[in-house]
Design a protein that fits this description.
There is one protein chain. The protein folds into 2 domains: 183 residues, Sandwich (Jelly Rolls), CATH 2.60.120; 100 residues, Homeodomain-like (Arc Repressor Mutant, subunit A), CATH 1.10.10. The chain is an alpha+beta fold and 299 residues long. A hairpin with a 2-residue loop joins β5 and β6.
């Protein structure tokens, strides 16, 4: 079986041309080894994570499995996977958990290639999480009625790893743990009435405020192109996704100004604005009053 480093090299060579809009982050292996010796990341550590949109001709065959456990989440399109449990179709809303060192093979559909959010993970608790998911679902495949929250968590993992800091590794661990436990809690369900892509996007934005999600990442989570999501969002909500995110942050700012004595700088940070001056300009543009004047109006 290939080592962890060898497997990564093989995968990078196979994907040298990449996919339009892809995101991928591989943690340097010396960093992995050091993180596994630490208290939090030693229990669960993401070593690789990514997004492959409309991944035509994407596939893998690992005769001896991978050195890490793998979570794959399909948010649009389709594909298939084969493990010792058999061969099964993977469609939108399906999550696949592949144990480390277990043979597997998977590939995107030729006619409708999947959009895949994925992560590789190790650590003392990782095998137990995979076993729990398999027990809940009766195998490696779980169906999620709405895959958007888990896709959002994988997106957070990628962002955290991309920060290149030890704190980023810890944040990635937290988001990955949340994603895996959501898959475990869902188990295998019959697909129920599905939320529309815009409804899924709105739920994700509400749940993750004040965190910012790019239109590209949001579209990939709900299985649309960026232009399709923008058009559908405008049609159904009345404003584009970025404006909707800004409105949510401004609503939070109003709530904090009305109900707390927090400094404007602290409120800006709590609403996702690193620059308090930029926050004040945006607030004034939206409300016609600066944050301090808005607060003073009720006194």
């Amino acid at each position: 079986m290939a080592s962890m480093d060898e497997t990564t090299v093989i995968e990078e060579l196979a994907l040298r041309d990449g996919f339009t809009g892809q995101r991928m982050f591989v943690v340097p292996r010396p960093t992995v080894q050091a993180a596994l010796a630490r208290p939090v990341t030693g229990r669960l550590l993401v070593t690789d994570a990514g997004l492959f949109p409309h991944a035509a001709r994407h596939g893998r065959f690992r005769e001896g499995g991978a050195s890490q456990h793998i979570l794959m989440l399909c948010t649009s399109g389709a594909g298939w996977c084969r493990t010792p449990d058999g061969r099964f179709t993977v469609q939108r809303g399906d999550a696949v958990l592949l144990p480390a060192e277990v043979a597997h093979e998977y590939a995107a559909s030729e006619d409708d290639p999947w959009t895949l959010w994925w992560l590789h993970f190790v650590g003392r608790d990782s095998a137990e999480l995979v076993r729990s998911a398999h027990e809940a679902a009766g195998g490696p495949l779980s169906h999620l009625r709405d895959p958007t929250p888990v896709a959002g968590l994988v997106s957070q993992v990628i962002d955290a790893l991309d920060s290149g800091t030890a704190g980023g590794l810890v944040r990635a661990t937290g988001a990955a743990w949340n994603a895996l436990t959501q898959v475990i809690a869902t188990g295998r369900r019959r697909p129920g009435p599905a939320l529309s892509p815009v409804e899924q996007a709105v739920e994700h934005l509400r749940a993750t405020t004040p965190q910012r999600t790019s239109v590209e990442a949001l579209a990939a989570m709900v299985g649309l192109s960026s232009s399709q999501l923008n058009a559908a969002f405008r049609r159904q909500v009345g404003v584009p996704p970025l404006r909707y995110q800004s409105d949510l942050r401004m609503a939070r700012a109003r709530e904090l100004l009305d109900s707390t004595d927090f400094a404007v700088t602290a409120i800006a940070a709590s609403c996702g604005y690193e620059d308090p001056l930029y926050f004040s300009r945006q607030f004034t543009r939206t409300h016609g009053l600066a944050p301090t004047a808005y607060r003073a109006r009720i006194k």
